[in-house]
Amino acid sequence: MTRDAVVVGGALAGSLAALALTRLEFAVALVEARPAPPRKAGSDGRSISLSLASVRVMESLGLWSALSAEATPITAVHVSEAGRFGHMKLSANDMNVAALGQVVPAEALMAAINEAGANAGVESLCPAEVAETVCAACVRNIKVRTGGGEEILSTRLLVAADGAGSGLREELGICAREQDYQASAWVMTAHVAHPQPGVAFERFTSEGTLAFLPRAGNTMGVVWTLPSRRDEEIALLGTAGFLERVEKAMGGRLGAMKPTAPLRHFPLTGVSARKQTAERAVVLGNAAHALHPVAAQGFNLTVRDVAVLAECAGGNREDIGSRSVLERYRQARRRDQARTQAFTGTARRLGDWQSPLASPLRATGLLACELLRPLARECARQGMGLSPAPLPALVRGARL
Ligand SMILES: Cc1cc2nc3c(=O)[nH]c(=O)nc-3n(C[C@H](O)[C@H](O)[C@H](O)COP(=O)(O)OP(=O)(O)OC[C@H]3O[C@@H](n4cnc5c(N)ncnc54)[C@H](O)[C@@H]3O)c2cc1C
Q1: Span from the CA of 10 to the centroid of ligand 1 (angstroms)
Q2: Domain membership flag for residue 326
Q3: Nearest CA to ligand 1 atom 41
C-alpha cells in the first residue's frame, strides 16, 4: 500500500502536518522515534505564543475548541529597555482585533494536536525510527525501524519534520546554514503579585532579552535568553535564585514572584535549510528553519507552512508529492519565510547587542516606534502572522 504522505517527526511540526493532510482525506503515516509524546503538565515547561494567524489555522483544523480552555489571550505587548524611559506598546485595540495572539502551554498544544490526529485517522508508528529513504518511480521508499524489526513504507510525499539536527535533510541532500547562538533560553512559569491581565512584556536587559507571557490565574511564562557561558552559574542559582534575578530585572513592575514550575534550559541553535523541497519530499518545522525564540515566531511560521502545504496538496489529490505541488509550495512560502527569518534575526541582534551605546540607542528606537504608529503596526502585523500578503487561505478563514 502506498501512503499519500509519510511524516517523520511527531513533535509540533510533524503532528500538525499529519493532522492537516489527514483532514484532506489523504492516507498519512506519522513516524516518531520517542516512545510517547510528553503530555504531563509542565513536562516541557514552555509557554507557546500563538499568533492570530496560527489561531485561525487551528480553528480551520478543528483544533481550537480543544485548546481554547487552556489559552490566555494577549491583548497588549509592552516592549522596554531596562532602566530607561523608551518603550513601545501595542494593543489589540490598535489593530482592531480582540487579541493579538494566544498563549498555550506547550504540553497542552502537543496533546491537542495528537488527540485530533488520532481521531482524524493519522496512522501512528511510535516508537519507530527512519534511517534511510530512496526515490523510486513515482514513489519514495522509507526504511523504518520499529521494535519488531524493519519495514519499508512507500509514499508519494515524505514530510521531514525531524528537528533542527534533521538526519533526513542530509539524506535528501539539502544543505543547511547552522548558527550556534552561544545562548540559552531559560524558561519557567511564575505567579506574579501585580499581574496586568493580557499584557505580554519584552524587556531588553544588559544580560539578554527577558520575556513574560500572560497565563491563567495570575501566572506568567518567563523566558530569559542569556549567553551560554553563564549556563553553569544560572543552573547553580536554581529556580528560586533565578526568579529573584528576574524580579529585579523587571524593576518590581510585576511585584513579587513565586515559581509555579521549575526552571528549564534550552540551548539555542539557528537552522536555515538552503532548499525546502527535494524529489517527493519537503522539510518542515525546525528541520527547515529553527528560529531564535526572541520573537516567538518559530512554530507560528511552521503553522503557516503547514496551511499552505495542505492548500497545495489539496489541489492535486492523485499525487501530493508531484513536482507541481512541491514547486507551488516552494514559491508560495519563499517570501513569508524570508521575512520572518529577517524579522527574528533583527530582534535577536538588537537583544544581543553589547556596547555602551546599545542601551540608549535601543531605548530611542523603541520611543521612535511608539511615536511612529505605522511602523509599530507593521511590526504587530508581522508578529500576528498577517504579513506579508497573500495570506494562506486557512488564515483568511477557509476551511479544509
Ligand atoms: C524556549 C523556546 C520557546 C519557544 N517559544 C515559541 C513561541 O512562543 N512561539 C512559537 O511560534 N515558537 C516558539 N518556539 C519554537 C518552537 O518550539 C519550534 O518551532 C517547534 O518546537 C519546532 O518543532 P519541530 O516539530 O519542528 O521539531 P522538534 O521539536 O525538534 O521535533 C522533532 C521530532 O522528530 C523526531 N525525530 C528525529 N529524528 C527522527 C527519526 N529519524 N525518525 C523518527 N523521528 C525522529 C524527534 O524525536 C522529535 O520528536 C520556541 C522555542 C524555544 C526553544
Answers
A1: 9
A2: yes
A3: 130
CATH code, domain carrying 305: 3.50.50.60
- The residue whose CA has the least distance to atom 39 of ligand 1 is 162
Pocket of ligand 1 (CB under 6 A): 8-14, 31-34, 46, 48-49, 129-130, 161-164, 167, 185, 187, 223, 266, 285-286, 293, 296-300, 302
Q: Which three cell numbers stand for residue 322?
A: 508531484
Give the atom of ligand 1 at the shortest distance from the alpha carbon of 223.
1
Phi/psi for 224 (5° steps) reads -125, 120
Residue 189 and residue 186: Cα distance in Å, rounded?
A: 11
Q: With DSSP H G I counted as helix, E B as strand and the rest as coil, what are the percentages for the chain, rounded to 5?
A: 35, 30, 30
Nearest CA to ligand 1 atom 1: 185
| Ligand 1 pocket mutation pick from 19, 39, 46 by most atoms within 8 angstroms of CB | 46
* CA 275 to ligand 1 centroid distance, Å: 19
Do the beta carbons of residue 280 and residue 156 sit within 8 Å?
yes
Which residue among 162, 202, 289 has the greatest number of ligand 1 atoms within 8 angstroms of its CB, and so is best to mutate?
A: 162
Cβ proximity of 131 and 143 under 8 Å: yes
What φ, ψ does residue 369 adopt, rounded to 5°? -65, -40
pTM of the model: 0.96
Structural domain contains residue 235: no
- Residue 32's nearest CA partner among 13, 4, 57, 53 is 13
Q: How much distance in Å is there from the Cα of 164 to the middle of ligand 1?
A: 8
pLDDT tens for the chain, residues 1 to 400:
999 999 999 999 999 999 999 999 999 999 999 987 555 666 789 999 999 999 999 999 999 999 999 999 999 999 998 877 778 899 999 999 999 999 999 999 999 999 999 999 999 999 999 989 999 989 999 999 998 899 999 999 999 999 999 999 999 999 999 999 999 999 999 999 999 999 999 999 989 999 999 999 999 999 999 999 999 999 999 999 999 999 999 988 899 999 999 999 999 999 999 999 999 999 999 999 999 999 999 999 999 999 999 999 998 889 999 999 999 999 999 999 999 999 999 999 988 887 777 888 888 888 888 888 888 899 899 999 999 989 999 999 888 7
In a domain, 78, yes or no: yes
Domain count, the chain: 1
Instruction: Print the domain residue range for 110.
Output: 2-179+270-383
Angle between helices 298-314 and 12-23 (to 10 degrees): 20
